[in-house]
Hints:
Blueprint: E1 9-13, E2 29-33, E3 50-52, H1 59-79, E4 98-101, H2 107-118, E5 122-127, H3 130-139, E6 142-145, H4 151-158, E7 166-168, H5 176-179
Helix pairs in contact: 1-2
Amino acid sequence: GSSSIYGLEVAGEIEAVGEGASVENCGRPVMALLPGGGYADYVTVPVDLLLPKPENLSFEEAAALPEVAATVYSNLVLTCGMSMDPAENLREDGQSATVLVHGGTGGIGVHAIQVALAAGTRVFATVGTEEKAEYVRSLGAEPIVYREHSFRDVVLSETGGRGADYILDVVGGRYFEDNL
């Protein structure tokens, strides 16, 4: 209900500020996640929803970041309970908790790998090709080419039958039983 215009993600420069906001912020590059209207030429964003745009990202890349980060964080940390403190992701047996990320080379998958590794976990990621496996490997995750191997069997084998502690699944449906 916030806007009839689609779009949840934005990045751009502050052109004007409302009452009580600092005029010195005009021209500052920012990004935000909105409840709607992001595809408009101009948007109004509450100041507490603004994030500084990283200098090394284009505006297009920056616009995608808040949604991806929110999705990964809300699912792995807030919903599943993975800690961002590596010490808290050690299991009682002294091994790191494991995360299985489906779609390891998509935007959500890449960010999930980065977040999970920063949290000190061991990360497995499903991919469709050996080329994608190399990319996931370069990020620090252990790839599973699902066209060649059962992700269920690989994760169970690599964890001594324990399985993954956390799973981020962008596929759903047919993966449900093997995820369990």
